[in-house]
Amino acid sequence: MDAEQLREYGHKMVDFIADYYKTIENFPVLSQVEPGYLRNLLPDSAPNQPDSFQHVLDGEVAQLILEFIRLHIQAKILPGVTHWQSPNYFAYYPSNSSVAGFVGEMLSAGLNIVGFSWIASPAATELEMIVLDWLAKMLKLPEDFLSAGQGGGVIQGTASEAVLVVLLAARDKVLRRVGKDALEKLVVYASDQTHSSLQKACQIAGIHPENCRLLKATSSTNYALSPEFLSETISQDLTIGLIPFFLCATVGTTSSTAVDPLLSLGKIAKSNGMWFHVDAAYAGSACVCPEFRHYMDGVEVADSFNMNAHKWFLTNFDCSALWVKDRSALVQALSTNPEFLKNKASQANMVVDYKDWQVPLGRRFRSLKLWMVLRLYGLENLQCYIRNHIKLAKHFENLIAQDPRFEVVTPRIFSLVCFRLLPVRNNESHGNKLNHQLLDAVNSTGSAFISHTVLSGKYILRFAVGAPLTEEKHVNAAWKVLQDKATSLLAESL
Ligand SMILES: *Cc1c(COP(=O)(O)O)cnc(C)c1O
Questions:
Q1: Which protein residue's CA is at the shortest distance from atom 1 of ligand 1?
Q2: Which GO terms describe its biological process (predicted)?
Q3: Which CATH number belongs to the domain containing residue 35 in this structure?
């Protein structure tokens, strides 16, 4: 790690990345390569000699990195990149980057510490605790989630890891009460709209496959989980001797941004002694705005709450914020204390050791980028940022409403619009095919990228506004492509 070499490489790479952002709209948003494309472009094994040994000997380090960027990154890698930061990106959910998030990430890469225990870098642990307290206050989370009491926040890599660790904490907590042999009887509840990461967590946690209850949510509740249905299912399970222990509710489902009624669901969970987790991976960001905070009402009764700062909150991937009310439950499920990590501060119980709140031992200094985002932008700008995307989604919704060939399928709540091209002559199965074709036609233009879902058997298109560079003109352009492709498809199907 030569400091002067880093300076040259680093400057050149930052120049390249800045130019990339400047010209990002020149690329097809969705990569158009075929599977396996890179095998043909790269050798079978790594070289014995560096690319250009002579350059290094001659001290022409900048030349070396420029050649690398041109020959390898531009020629081989960029064609295989889907441009998540493009203003024409409307697929899945966003994965934001920002200048503050980016330079925070750079600093984290530069320091390159591994902060498993407090002693391994006190600043990493302490900054993470403070910044997650800040974010908890911005979200108006109840005080029990703050680090001053029995709870606290931790940065996980993803929402999937967040739900896994709380599921493990909840599992071990209930098993301590009812005995280890009861594992087969434990039951998990959520709606069938819940993110697939819950199912994966159940698989890992050893929950019996039949005891992961994904309760059907329908259009009658806009795909939210019905408290009555939950209550009935729990009662049935109790009568046959099963042990309900975990409920996962979602604020803003991945498919259609459905919002589960947290308070009524949470009360049911509590009266049955269950752990209540709230997944707000995407929509949590919107809840820093007072007008959207009510979607989180009921979080008071939750045991854990998660939002992805790396989705829609200007913090570069990865940064998933998880808060728990009882941190000891996490620690009891996940702690180890090998001799080689023993130290005075940990032994005296004076510090938080985040290794005990997560699956891996090692962890990056991710709080730096979240801290920089919060400090350099501030709450008011972040609120404006969210509101602007929601305004653009509303605008898109209005455009759809003006074209009788299309319909909006579920009420838009945040910045996702679920819509479709109406089937011709009410032929639903042909309608599904038509919308699938429309999706492919739009995405193969490279000028916009949207994704899909299926709701009640209907193939639905998803238009998620949330890339930092997206403006109204990009929404209008994407709509134009959709309309044009719809016109051709409808003409063909006549
Ligand atoms: C995106 C998303 C997830 C998964 O996020 P990862 O951080 O990639 O694991 C989970 N739940 C919801 C509601 C999501 O939108």
A1: 281
A2: amino acid metabolic process; carboxylic acid metabolic process
A3: 1.20.1340.10
Range of the domain at 273: 114-364
What is the whole-number distance in angstroms between the Cα of residue 431 and the centre of ligand 1?
29
194: CA distance to ligand 1 center in Å? 10
Residue 186 backbone phi and psi in degrees, to 5? -75, 135
Task: Domain count for the chain, please give it.
Answer: 3
Alpha carbon nearest to ligand 1 atom 5, residue = 159
CA of 451 to the centre of ligand 1 (A): 15
CA 159 to ligand 1 centroid distance, Å: 5
- Same domain? For 357 and 390 the reply is no
52-61, 129-138, 260-269, 446-455: segment of lowest average pLDDT:
52-61
Angle between helices 159-178 and 197-205 (to 10 degrees): 40
Burial pattern 8-39, b for ≥16 Cβ within 10 A else e, equals: bbeebbeebeeebeeebeebbbbbeeeeeeee
Work out whether strand 243-250 and strand 186-191 pair parallel, antiparallel, or are unpaired: parallel
197 lines ligand 1 (CB under 6 A): yes
How far apart CA 332 and CA 172 sit, in angstroms, is 8
Question: For residues 298 and 265, is the Cβ–Cβ distance under 8 A?
Answer: yes
CATH for 387 = 3.90.1150.10
d(CA 494, CA 479): 22
Query: Strands 320-324, 275-279: parallel, antiparallel or unpaired by DSSP?
Result: unpaired
- Is residue 415 helix, strand or coil? coil
Judge whether 202 lies within some domain. yes
Tens of pLDDT, residues 379-396: 999 999 999 999 999 999
Q: Which atom in ligand 1 lies closest to the alpha carbon of residue 311?
A: 1
CA pair distance 17, 309, nearest whole angstrom: 22
Q: State whether the beta carbon of 416 lies less than 6 angstroms from ligand 1.
A: no
In whole angstroms, what is the distance from residue 474 CA to residue 471 CA?
5
Cα of 60 to ligand 1 centre, how many Å? 44
CA 111 to centroid of ligand 1, rounded, Å: 28
**Is the confidence at residue 59, as pLDDT, over 70?**
no
Test site for ligand 1: of 279, 315, 413, 414, most ligand atoms within 8 A of the Cβ: 279
Probe target for ligand 1 pocket from 84, 164, 195, with the most ligand atoms within 8 Å of CB: 195
Length of the chain: 494
Residue 409 tokens, joined: 């399928």
Q: Is the dihedral of CA 331, 333, 334, 337 positive or negative?
A: positive
- Give residues with Cβ within 8 angstroms of 485, minimum separation 6: 438, 441, 442, 445
Q: pTM for this structure?
A: 0.96
pLDDT in tens, 319-351: 999 999 999 999 999 999 999 999 999 999 999
